[in-house]
Known about the structure:
By secondary structure, the protein is mainly β. About 10% of the residues lie in helices and about 35% in strands.
Amino acid sequence: MRKPVTACMLTVSTMLAAVAVSGPAIAADIAVRPGPNAAEELAEALIGAQKGDTIWLGFGRYELTDGLSLYVDDVSVRGMGPDSSILSFKEQQGSGEGLLVTSNRVILDGFAVEDARGDGIKSKGSDQITFTNLRVEWTNGPDEKNGAYGVYPVSSKNVLIDNVTVRGASDAGIYVGQSDGIVVRNSLAEYNVAGIEIENSFHADVYKNVARHNTGGILVFDLPNLPQQGGRDIRVFDNEVTENDTANFAPKGNTVAMVPKGMGIMVMANRNVHVFGNRLDKNDTAHVLIAAYPEDYKDDNYMFVPRGVYVHDNTYGEGGGAPDGEVGETISKYSGIPVPDIVWDGVTRIPEWLSWTAPENRIYISEEAGTTFVNLKMLSQLILPWSTTPDTDISAYKGSLPEPAPVELPQDKTS
């Protein structure tokens, strides 16, 4: 028997479907509109939802004081558009997420989440989670007190993020962590610390996005001491990564607090990463940085160096003219100013140093004439401090790697 739902939450056409009947539950459209009881009604709709239900958010602003959670599989939450159906958490009492999803085959579409005390929209342990036509924003602009992540699927599979806008996250606007099977496309990330970040994840396509006015545009990281490690098989292509000029406002101690203002695309300690077809312009520290994890760690399973990175067929405008922070200072000390378009710190594992690395693990660069490059040879500086001349011969890094297969998601068969 279907759990009763309050009549004020239903359209006329679905009231009959909500009547208690014997046999399997009947899928229903549940409408929740702004008003004095909207917070209670929306929480009730999410808790009481059953498989196949669609919860509709009407036009207007919902003033919410508590976070929301969805635990039921096969549910859609849909609004009238990211500027029309707005979930405001400005008066949120707790510090958790605006909306937390822990179920499978969920679609979140057509609404906004504003000013969450914690993360904006988070999914954890979800399979086939879809974020489309959404906006997550901290309306006061960049501030270390803002929530860490805007759209935040973690430990999930088959993640689709399409036509999403995130502004003001104090860590990453669009962040996918410890997940497998990821598509991030057609989205805008601006005025965050990291615009888009793929971390400790497998098989991701990040394309046709705009990452601008962040501290760093697009980050592909692998970090120690996490349940899933060995991030690999990532394609970052056909994105616009421009004018990432927001001062870093991450709280001290966060990993992204080390990202310098003016970073375009940064690949750190990841494997088989392909960066191609992107337009990079006015990123004042560096357009592309390939780097090892720079901190001490205690994790025997962690590989701290990038392996198999192929950068090709990108377009580079002005950049590298005002390198920022400790990272920028270190790079420019050896590369000069302006910093070259593509920077590799040159760190490899010590056992492999003399023979460099196996072909499948090398760094390959294939760009148009005039593109500038530097290998800082930081391992050489560590072991042989009398040999500190960086390598700027881009032709020495010619070659290619087999491209990872495009990511295909069950919920995205028509793309």
